[in-house]
Structures are given as structure tokens and as C-alpha cells.
Design goal:
The chain is mainly β. It has a single domain, classed as YVTN repeat-like/Quinoprotein amine dehydrogenase (Methylamine Dehydrogenase, Chain H). It contains one helix and 32 strands. A four-stranded antiparallel sheet has the order 2-32-31-30, with no helix packed on it. It has a four-stranded antiparallel sheet with strand order 3-4-5-6. A four-stranded antiparallel sheet has the order 7-8-9-10, with no helix packed on it. A hairpin with a 4-residue loop joins β27 and β28. The longest helix has 10 residues. It is globular. It starts with a helix and ends in a 13-residue tail after the last strand.
């Protein structure tokens, strides 16, 4: 492991940080992470687009060598874990006081593609699951990794749950969700048999939400005595097509689903109508494109792209990343879009330019750090067009978050 780490840190020398890809616009800038460029020398000249976003975004270097499946920030410090199909989990350290804030920290390897990654509550462990049918735990104190969970098929999802003093929850294509106690030795606590393969999963507090094939959803609470309390025994998604992503609402009172048809549904566990007969649940369209804004869409047609990732932040607003190559910030409370990062218009003269993603490659993963001052996203092919549309580009970026862009808006009257 030590030699692998050294080789990986040496690799960063082959990817020098370019001032054109930094937050700072010039090599003479002395400000810290997120400093705003000033002066004429920092005026964007690379495009004639009316609007440019992503100008401050910093590339995470060295990048993965294959598709990026998941991003996860430590809950206690600014470390970013990146899971990739190249079989590695890479951990990067982010120093917000530095003009070049990203540096490689550690990495460890599976025996197959890595499909998901998460952190323990204390930030001391990184846990990942993959196509090799095991979950591995990397100890940040010892820099050693070990197998801590196993399934009969690939592990699609891993999440840390606060119940029972802290447990690992794994969701697999073998149609099970398993709960593991890791200390002092890995021990299987519970197995939940599912009717279908687990495609996506999230945890909030002691509540586990799993989204499966055939649009099925279940949710349960892990009690302190080790028993499981059903919240949703078996429910069909309100979306019409396959679930692509799921995230628990911050208050633990529901969940948000992203579908392959460019739609998000926000659902609540106890959605009792108010005195006017209104309920809180809602759904909205997103990540859909017409020919005027996406060159791959024929005239007089609209294309629907998958919602690959949803991420809430500490303020209660959330982001979505889609197969169309755009990112949106949303306010659940007011049901409004707060900000968008996308490239619109023809390639030769876009009316809006997402500077780090001018070719509209899919956004495969997104994440906020613990205090929502940093937002990370991955540009990587998501296979929604099959092998014909495959693109070898795989990049991860971070950006400083403007508090106004993620501020809650008052509910609409």
C-alpha cells in the first residue's frame, strides 16, 4: 500500500495544475480557495457566450482512469473520496487556504470496478463496495484496507448508519440489504431480502431507503436493539421509468428519487392532506433538452436524460446532476431552481457555457462537503447511449459555493 501511494503521488507531477483550470485565473493570484479573480487580466476570453459558469472550478488531479461512479466527502474534514470503474478509490485532501487546494492523499484498490463509496460518522474510515462482491474499509489512521462485507453479487450501494453505535449498510444486486457491525471484527447483524436488485440506497439517521428494479421502494428504521421497523414495506415509485438515484430528505421524513426520464419526485413517509386537501409530495421535470440547446437532439424533438445523482446540503437545498451534462441547484421548500450550470446553444456559439464541460458530457456523481462550502462533481460517461456513445474523458472538479446559490427561498403562497 505504501508503494502504491508513493507511485500515485508521483503521478500528480505529470498533471501540473494549470492556472486556466484553477479558481484564480492567474498564476500571480495569492488568495485562498474560492478567491474571486479581479482585474482585466482575469476577464474570460475563451468564449463569446453571454453567460459563463464554472470559471472558478478546480480540477481534481490526478483523475481516475475510468468512469467515476461516486463521490463522497468526509463528515469531519475536507477529504474527498472518489470511486471509479478502474478498481481504485482515491482520497484527496482539500486545503481551502491554498491557491492550489487539491492534493492526492491515499488510494486503495478492489478486484473489480468500484460502484459506491461512503465515510464513517467519525471520518476515520472510508468504505466502498464494488463488482468484486465485497465492501472494503480503509482506515485513515493506519492507511490499511480490509474486506468487511460480502454479497453473492456486486455491491451497488454502501452507506454508514448511526444506529447501534454505527453500522455499515450494503445494498446488492443479489436482492439483499445487509447491516454490518465493523468493530471489533466485521459481523453481520441483519439481512433484508428484497424482491428485486438494489439500484440505489441512502441513509438518514437510522432510516434506510432502498430503490430497486421494477421501480420498487422500501424503507425501514434500524432500532437500537437491532430489530428493523418497516416504514415502507413495498411501494412503487411515482416515476414512470427506472429509478436512477435516491437520497433521503435531511429531516428523515421522506426521500427524493431521480429517474431515467429526466424527472425528480419528492416523497414523504406521512403525507397527510392539510385542511385544503393538499399534500407535500411533488415531482418536476429536469435534465431535458431540445435541439436549440443540445446538438444531439434532432429538430422538433425533446430528449430526456437520466438524473444520475441527487445531493442535499446542510442548508436543506439540493443539487441534481444529469446525463445531459448539466447541474442544477434546487430549493425543495419553494419548489424553485436556484442555479444552473449548463452549456446551451450551438457548439460554435453557445449562449451559455459551462466552462469545464463544453461538450455536454454526463455528470455521473455530485457531492457537497459537510458545511456546504465546497461542491464536487464528476464528468464521466454514464452509458445511457450504450457503447456507441462511449467517451474516455473522466474528470472530477470542485468549486467554492456561493451561499446565495444554496440559500432556501420562502414557500410560494
Amino acid at each position: 500500500m505504501e508503494s502504491d501511494t508513493v507511485r500515485w503521488k508521483e503521478k500528480v507531477l505529470r498533471y501540473p495544475l494549470s492556472p486556466n483550470l484553477s479558481f484564480f485565473g492567474s498564476t500571480t493570484t495569492t488568495g485562498g480557495f474560492g478567491s474571486r479573480p479581479t482585474g482585466a487580466a482575469n476577464v474570460a476570453t475563451t468564449t463569446t457566450a453571454a453567460k459563463v459558469t464554472g470559471e472558478q472550478d478546480q480540477e481534481v488531479i490526478p483523475p481516475p482512469n475510468d468512469g467515476v461512479s461516486a463521490l463522497s466527502f468526509s463528515p469531519t474534514a475536507d477529504f474527498l473520496a472518489v470511486a471509479s470503474w478502474d478498481t481504485f478509490v482515491r482520497i484527496y485532501r482539500i486545503d481551502k487556504s491554498s491557491p492550489q487546494p487539491v492534493s492526492p492523499w491515499q488510494q486503495y484498490q478492489h478486484e473489480g470496478p468500484v460502484l459506491d463509496v461512503c465515510w464513517s460518522q467519525d471520518g476515520a474510515k472510508v468504505i466502498s463496495g464494488g463488482a468484486d462482491k465485497v465492501a472494503r474499509c480503509f482506515d485513515m489512521n493506519t492507511n490499511q484496507s480490509a474486506v468487511v462485507a460480502q454479497h453473492n453479487e456486486p455491491i451497488r450501494c454502501v452507506r454508514w448508519c448511526r444506529a447501534l453505535g454505527g453500522v455499515l449498510v450494503t445494498g446488492s444486486w443479489d436482492k439483499t440489504v445487509k447491516i454490518w457491525k465493523l468493530d471489533p471484527q466485521p459481523n453481520l447483524v441483519q439481512t433484508v431480502n428484497l424482491p428485486e436488485k438494489c439500484y440505489a440506497m441512502d441513509v438518514c439517521g437510522n432510516i434506510v431507503i432502498a430503490a430497486m428494479a421494477e421501480r420498487l421502494i422500501i424503507a425501514f428504521a434500524v432500532e437500537e436493539n437491532g430489530t428493523l421497523r418497516p416504514i415502507i414495506e413495498q411501494h412503487q415509485s411515482p416515476l414512470k421509468y427506472q429509478t436512477k438515484s435516491v437520497v433521503a430528505l435531511p429531516d428523515g421524513d421522506g426521500y427524493a428519487l431521480g429517474g431515467v426520464e429526466g424527472r425528480v419526485a419528492v416523497q414523504y413517509f406521512n403525507d397527510v392532506p392539510d385542511k385544503d386537501g393538499k399534500v407535500k409530495k411533488f415531482a418536476f421535470k429536469c435534465h431535458r433538452r431540445a435541439n436549440a440547446d443540445h446538438p444531439d437532439v434532432p429538430r422538433n424533438e425533446n430528449h430526456l436524460f437520466p438524473v444520475n445523482a441527487i445531493a442535499f446540503n446542510v442548508h436543506g437545498t439540493f443539487a441534481t446532476g444529469g446525463g445531459d451534462g448539466s447541474i442544477n441547484f434546487w430549493c425543495k421548500q419553494s419548489r424553485t431552481r436556484l442555479k444552473t450550470f449548463e452549456t446551451k446553444g450551438p457548439i460554435n456559439a453557445p449562449k451559455e457555457l459551462f466552462k469545464t464541460n463544453p461538450n455536454r458530457l454526463p455528470i455521473s456523481a455530485i457531492a457537497f462537503n459537510a458545511d456546504a462550502t465546497i461542491f464536487a462533481y464528476a464528468i464521466s460517461y454514464d452509458w445511457h447511449k450504450g457503447y456507441q456513445g462511449a467517451n474516455p474523458e473522466n474528470k472530477v472538479y470542485i468549486q467554492p459555493v456561493n451561499p446565495e446559490d444554496i440559500k432556501k427561498r420562502p414557500p410560494k403562497a
